[in-house]
C-alpha cells in the first residue's frame, strides 16, 4: 500500500513540475540574441563560377535532437559525408533542428574547412532547453545576418527558441539573395494553427521584400499554405514527400523556380526528413 502511495505521490509531483515548467517557458519573454557568424577557416575549396546565374539552396531538417541515445556523432558524420558529395553544386545549405552541440560543432568544422561562411544562433539560456536549431552555410560572403525568435509557441516547442535566421548572400558577380531558414511550430498539437499564423506574420514583418524562405514549415493544410503565401510570397513545395508520406519542407518567395525532394542513401538512420533542393530564378 505504501508503495502505491509513494508512486502516486511521485506521479503527482512530476506532473506538477512539468506543468509548472511549461507555464514558465510559455510565458517567459523570448529574446533572439545576436546570430554567430564565422568566416572560412581556409580559402574556398569549392569551385565557383563567377558568371553562373543559377542559385541553388539545399534545405534539410537533420533531426539533431540533443539526446545521448540519438547517436549524434555517428549521424553527424554520415551527414557531412553526404554534404561533401553534393555541396559543390549548391550556393547555400540551410539546416533545421541543429539542436545538438555535436551537430553544430561538426557542421561548423566541415563547412569552414571547405572555405564556407557559417552562421547559427546562440545556445539556449534559462529557462529554455534548446535554441532555434537553425544553421546557414554559404560558399559566398554573408551580410546583414539576422535572427528573429518567434514569441508564440505551444507544447514541446516552447522549450526551444524557434524562429527565422536570415542573411544576404553576396556572389562575386554582384548577385545578392536574401535567404531565411525557418522552422515553424509543430502542427500536430492543439492550437498550433493560431501559433503558426502569428509566427508567419512575425516573419513577414521582419523580412525585406524579395526574401526567399526555406525550411521545415510544418504546414499540413492548403488553407494554411494559402495564408502563408499571402505573407511570404508564392509557395513552392516538392511533389514527393519530405516527412513520412507528407510534404512539410519547401520554400516561399517569388524568386523560387523549382523545389525537388532528394533521396540520399545512408547505412543507418540519419533523419526523419528528406532534404530538398531549391533553385532560384
Short note summarizing the structure:
With about 280 residues, this protein is α+β, with helices and mostly antiparallel strands. The chain is built from five helices and 13 strands.
Question: What structural keywords apply?
Answer:
single chain; 281 residues; alpha+beta; Deoxyribonuclease I, Chain A; seven-stranded mixed beta sheet; six-stranded mixed beta sheet; 5 helices; 28% helix
Task: Characterise this structure.
- The protein is of the alpha+beta class.
- It has one domain (31-280): Deoxyribonuclease I, Chain A (4-Layer Sandwich), CATH 3.60.10.10.
- Helices cover 28% and strands 27% of the residues.
- It contains 5 helices and 13 strands.
- A 7-stranded mixed β-sheet has the order 1-4-5-3-2-13-12, with helices on one face.
- Helix 4 (192-206) links the parallel strand 8 (176-183) and strand 9 (212-216).
- Helix 2 (72-86) packs parallel to helix 3 (101-113) and helix 4 (192-206) packs parallel to helix 5 (222-232).
- The longest helix is centred in the first third of the chain and has 26 residues, at 2-27.
- The termini are far apart.
- The model has no long low-confidence stretch (mean pLDDT 91).
Amino acid at each position: 500500500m505504501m508503495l502505491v502511495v509513494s508512486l502516486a505521490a511521485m506521479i503527482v509531483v512530476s506532473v506538477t513540475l512539468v506543468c509548472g515548467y511549461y507555464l514558465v517557458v510559455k510565458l517567459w519573454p523570448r529574446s533572439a540574441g545576436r546570430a554567430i557568424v564565422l568566416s572560412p577557416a581556409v580559402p574556398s575549396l569549392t569551385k565557383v563560377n563567377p558568371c553562373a546565374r543559377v542559385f541553388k539552396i539545399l534545405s534539410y531538417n537533420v533531426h539533431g535532437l540533443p539526446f545521448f541515445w540519438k547517436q549524434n556523432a555517428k549521424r553527424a558524420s554520415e551527414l557531412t559525408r553526404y554534404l561533401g558529395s553534393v555541396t559543390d553544386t549548391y550556393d547555400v545549405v540551410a539546416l533545421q533542428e541543429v539542436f545538438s552541440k555535436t551537430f553544430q560543432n561538426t557542421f561548423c568544422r566541415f563547412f569552414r574547412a571547405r572555405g564556407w561562411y557559417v552562421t547559427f544562433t546562440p545556445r539556449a539560456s534559462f529557462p529554455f532547453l534548446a535554441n532555434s536549431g537553425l544553421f546557414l552555410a554559404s560558399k559566398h560572403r554573408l551580410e546583414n545576418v539576422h535572427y528573429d525568435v518567434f514569441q508564440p509557441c505551444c507544447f514541446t516547442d516552447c522549450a526551444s527558441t524557434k524562429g527565422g535566421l536570415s542573411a544576404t548572400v553576396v556572389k562575386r558577380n554582384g548577385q545578392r539573395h536574401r535567404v531565411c531558414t525557418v522552422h515553424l511550430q509543430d502542427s500536430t498539437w492543439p492550437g498550433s494553427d493560431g501559433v503558426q499564423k502569428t509566427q508567419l506574420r512575425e516573419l513577414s514583418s521582419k523580412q525585406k521584400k524579395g526574401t526567399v524562405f526555406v525550411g521545415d514549415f510544418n504546414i499540413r493544410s492548403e488553407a494554411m499554405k494559402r495564408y502563408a503565401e499571402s505573407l511570404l510570397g508564392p509557395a513552392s513545395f516538392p511533389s514527393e514527400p519530405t516527412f513520412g508520406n507528407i510534404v512539410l519542407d519547401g520554400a516561399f518567395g517569388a524568386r523560387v523556380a523549382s523545389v525537388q525532394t532528394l533521396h540520399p542513401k545512408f547505412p543507418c538512420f540519419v533523419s526523419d526528413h528528406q532534404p530538398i533542393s531549391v533553385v532560384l530564378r
